[in-house]
Amino acid sequence: MRTGADYIASLSDDRSIYVDGERVADVATHPAYRGVVRTVASLFDHAADPANGMQFEAGDIPGPLNRVFMIPRSREDLAARREAITAWAELTHGWVGRSPDHVGGFLAGFAGFPEFFDRDGRDFSQNVTDFYRRLVTENLYVSYVIIPPQIDRSATPSSLEDEFPQVGVAEEREDGIVIRGAQMLGTASAISDYIFVSCIKPLAESDERYAVSFVVPTASKGLKLLSRRPYAVDLPSEFDYPLSSRFDESDALVTFEDVFVPWSDVFVYRDVGGTMGQWFATAAHVLGNSQAQIRLVAKIKFLISLARKIAAVNGIDRIPSVVEKLGELASLAAVVEGMTVAAEAECVIDANGVARPNPRYLYGVMGLQAELYPRCLSILRELSGAGMIQLPATFRDVSAPETAQLVQRYICSPGVDAEERIKLFKLAWDAVGSEFAGRHHQYEMFYAGAPFVSKGYAYRNYGYDEVVEDLDRFLRSYGAPVSTAPAS
Questions:
Q1: For 158, which DSSP code?
Q2: Of 20, 219, 243, 416, whose CB has the highest number of CB atoms within 10 Å?
Q3: Number of neighbouring beta carbons within 10 Å of residue 481
């Protein structure tokens, strides 16, 4: 299987990544990316070691293969997939939101129903199958951009003055298509092998030019990525910013300046119904989002462990009001984990033989994500108090002759020396207060789109007909009594 060294070597492909107005010469060593590149490399190394139990065989596809990319066919498959995804999530403590298994889940969903992509005289089903085989045999890292730039949310792309306000077809050729425009939000795209490009935002019938799905190598000619400000640059040390330095996967505006895509890499072409249907007619949306919730379980466990540790270090963990807050965190963590396991346990085997996590529970917890995550942060802040603010500027204050004695005397706790206390509270700050933390707060709040979108998924997939029918039966079981009072 692909190793971390293989992955790092693959990044030297002359991709066009821009940070602060300058093109990145080497993604693997650039300060903005080297930390997260090492992190991703460790994921591939972990999967490549048979002792870690992340490998499986798929019969007709030469193996061993990475279990995170499997097409689940049973509840047992979903459990094995969850264990593999959890293994990766625990290595990053949930802080890498777009690790290779995320988009890999969507692609597995596509490949579980390739016939869907044979539409209106255009058959791209083999393309979907072939790329999935590449995904699992080469252990590819695929990111995605599926949201148009926020130019005018009130208008359809075809009604805007700019001909290409988002990714669209500029030219159709015998051997493929030419793509122009831009798409967001390219999380981890700068460090991925391929980018899956499509649109999850509803399109009008007049928008067929933009109704496409395809994969493209990150190093494609004409493809440029404009990164947001990286949070891993100019940090004093990992001690001061342990999360920012390791897990900043970066986000980028991905621009297409007449990028050629061969027909073999096209999944949907000028098909509004196909562009939307690919997410939900197949198992793509539930498999990709179940990965995200499994990852979120690891992340929330990490946050509540920080809260528990800080309460103990501060000597407040037996105060009833603090126990109440820790209990609330425990409840929030259990809700996310319990709903994720319930979605798996109550899975549905669809007509194509794919085991789909139950959407009632999957979308139910997604609908609360924008509230659960900020609440965890709020409680962690409350338990930390000023401890996250009154910290030395950098690690140098811990050892500098002029400051070390003062730090050791005044920034400590019973049984915990200054260095360990500072280390803990700097980690907490990087989780809730740094620029990296602020980005993650925003990311989790809008992971599934605006809150009304994620709650819409929960509404449509809960099964309201079932509970309303039960209510109607109850209402039919009684009525107003016949009055026997004499007429006046």
A1: G
A2: 243
A3: 6
Whether residue 185 has a cis bond before it, omega within 30° of 0: yes
Q: Which of 419, 481, 348 is nearest to 75 (CA)?
A: 348
Distance in angstroms (rounded) separating the CA atoms of residues 7 and 1: 11
Report the distance separating Cα 380 and Cα 432, nearest Å.
8
Residue-range domains of the chain with CATH: 4-63+114-280 (2.40.110.10), 284-465 (1.20.140.10)
User: Beta partners for 56?
Assistant: 65
pLDDT tens-place string over residues 44-97: 999 999 999 999 998 889 889 999 999 999 999 999 999 999 999 999 999 999
Q: Could you tell me how many residues make up the chain?
A: 488
The answer to whether the CB of 39 falls within 8 A of the CB of 247 is yes
CA distance linking residue 240 with residue 210, whole number of Å: 44
Burial classification of residue 417, based on how many CB atoms lie within 10 Å of its CB (0-12 exposed, 13-18 middle, 19 or more buried): middle
What are the pLDDT digits (tens) for 263-298?
999 999 999 999 999 999 999 999 999 999 999 999
Report which of 2, 22, 18, 1 is spatially closest to residue 10, judged by C-alpha positions: 2
In 3D space, the residue among 260, 234, 259, 262 whose CA is nearest the CA of residue 248 turns out to be 234
Q: Are strands 122-123 and 142-145 parallel, antiparallel or unpaired?
A: unpaired
- Candidates 32, 28, 25; CA nearest to 6 is 28
CA dihedral 479, 481, 487, 488 (to 10 degrees): -90
pTM for this structure? 0.94
